[in-house]
Amino acid sequence: xxxxxxxxxxxxxxxVVAALVVALTTPAAAHPEGPSHHAPxxxxxxxxxxxxxxxxxxxxxxxxxxxxxxxxxxxAGYPCSNVDLLAFLPLSDIGGTRSNSAANDIWGWxxxxxxxxxxxxxxxxxxxxxxxxxxxxxxxxxxLPTHGAFGSSWRDIKVYADHAFIVSEALNHGMQVFDLTQxxxxxxPPVTFAETAYYSSVGSAHNVAINEASGFAYVVGASGKNxxxxxxxxxxxxxxxxxxxxxxxxxxxxxxxxxxxxYAGPDAARDGREICFNSNEDTVTIVDVTxxxxxxxxxxxxxAGSGYTHQGWLTDDQTYFLLDDELDERNLGHNTRTRxxxxxxxxxxxxxxxxxxxxxxxDHNQYVQGRFSYQANYRAGLRxxxxxxxTTANLSEVGYFDVYPTDDKADFNGAWSNYPYFASGVxxxxxxxxxxxxxxxxxxxxxxxxxxxxxxxxxxxxxxVIVTLSGSDAETCELGFSIVSGPAHGSLSSLxxxxxxxxxxxxxxxxxxxxxxxxxxxPDSFAYRVTDEHGNSGDASVSITVAPENDAPIASNDSxxxxxxxxxxxxxxxxxxxxxxxxxxxxxxxNVNSGATVTINEDNTLTYTPPTDFVGPDAFGYTVSDGNGxxxxxxxxxxVTEAFILHVGDLDxxxxxxxxxxxxxxxxxxxxxxxxxxxGATVSFSWRTERGSEGDATCDTGxxxxxxxxxxxxxxxxxxxxxxxxxxxxTDYAYDGTANHDLDGDSDGTSITVRKQ
Length: 757
Hints:
By secondary structure, this protein is mainly beta. It folds into 4 domains: 2-441, YVTN repeat-like/Quinoprotein amine dehydrogenase (Methylamine Dehydrogenase, Chain H); 451-547, Sandwich (Immunoglobulin-like), CATH 2.60.40; 558-641, Sandwich (Immunoglobulin-like); 644-756, Sandwich (Immunoglobulin-like). Mean pLDDT is 85; it is low at 1-26, 28-40, 646-657, 736-740 and 742-748.
């Protein structure tokens, strides 16, 4: 095993080993990634973050490496067992340099349109995207810079519906949303991308988990803004570009990491519920989050020898939970320890036992795929454990790839995380000081894997459909069913397992209900997995065609105004809509009051004529049709007011000299229907000559009902001037029209009269 070969392995490759921590308060401009001095942990740092920050080293100086088979315990100088190296890209090749480096989290995305696989690598000041569809020749496509000016050693990434969701301990980072389909169109890499959307309802955060079967994200370890005391900050991401806050779970304080699932395990009372398995610093805490407004803590259990309850993952049948503790190796001196919890009773989980690995390294992040747990164990690199008999915590190391050959001490250097869920069998690993490792395990299996059946079905818009998932296996009858990735345009119910049928081969099935999103039509899909008793698994997809159904149009109420005895045309369709994009038309008008008329015009506008001499409120209704049987109705509120006519008096007098200026006194009066002067009215008007000279003025009629204002700058030329009242401020008074006056004299007086019609 590795300890006996460590000295020879260290000599095999001239490594300069390193790590880097940049605090959340480190701005990019002042402290680029990789400062020459050690940066402190952020002010709110947990115990494990402080330990990480204290164990920094300089970044490794490495070159890109091609594929190498694991032979006699080495692949391109890296210690290994049953794991081949396909490619290695150093930090400098994926957006980092010696002064701008240090990796952290890693996740993966498979483009359902092309089948291409991509690695998504977190860094101090951004997120890198690498095309690994040819795993021996990975291509760095570009980066998404961190949100804001600050970087952090802690960044976390998950994927849902072709979008990456990214959080960080950086100050006020929030959650970035990135549309991964942009990676399809990169022709000249590397590209600096922009975030597609941004969720600002949380400040900094340590991790994010996503339940792809429900479309909810769970931000944990948050600080600032709505932190939920560091517990579960729940976000609805079913529309990925419009994430919205859904609820908090804070009853057990800080959550370091979590896994949330639609429960299909042995606890029948919780079947179909959404359950989160939280690693809460010193406990495993299980929470029912089905109702986001009132989450329910089901269990909170600690254990002897805890250092820092860091992260864990369920077995495929959701019966056991494998836990890693990030400080127990360092504090207590034992080898890498994986604890196995029986969670078949969600209200009373029990610790079955633990497995100690071959090295003293710290375990960091692990993910279960079938009968294997893939662990990123810092200085020991990728470690693969077979779940030989998980009921007794009987695990066995069956493969490894050491990204940090110098030693296996219990320090915070080397492998941060891994992603083992690519259909190709490729596993990617992020090295803190190193970069991206693309690996292929070669693991023996027990028995043949089951086969999952691809399914195609259809349903109508706004209509659920029951889908029967199917799997077969030569040896195993009872198969486990789980959802690998949920639909992009709908939701799934809980799984309802059927009884298996023995035969050649054995077959098993499970039913699940798919409900399309409201008003959605078009293609959708989700993926599922069948798992046998040995942990072997097979995946398949369900393709769903949602047929469109005609949706009725939506007619919205309108309002308009006119003056006495004056018709007005209303474009009632301007604020009406049809989700199907149908062309709308007005088919009838209703509830027209006596004396009024409403005419449907060829362009589907409506012309309203009030009753003779009527002043006051009025209304009528109309019906809109989409031409496909869908109709809706709305009302039009009318306001009929008194009308006023603008009168401009004569400008009399002798001729004036061309080219000189002319001042006129304009008298303004406001009259009521009895032709009496109205006081306290403010009249605004403008004037413009044929030659282009123009201006505006305002006067208040005061107590006399009359005011005079001087108009300056009129050119002394023959022609005309147009006076236009632009506003009358007086309750129940209006105006209409303009008036022209010939400029053929030198009189200095004119008048504007606003009176009731």
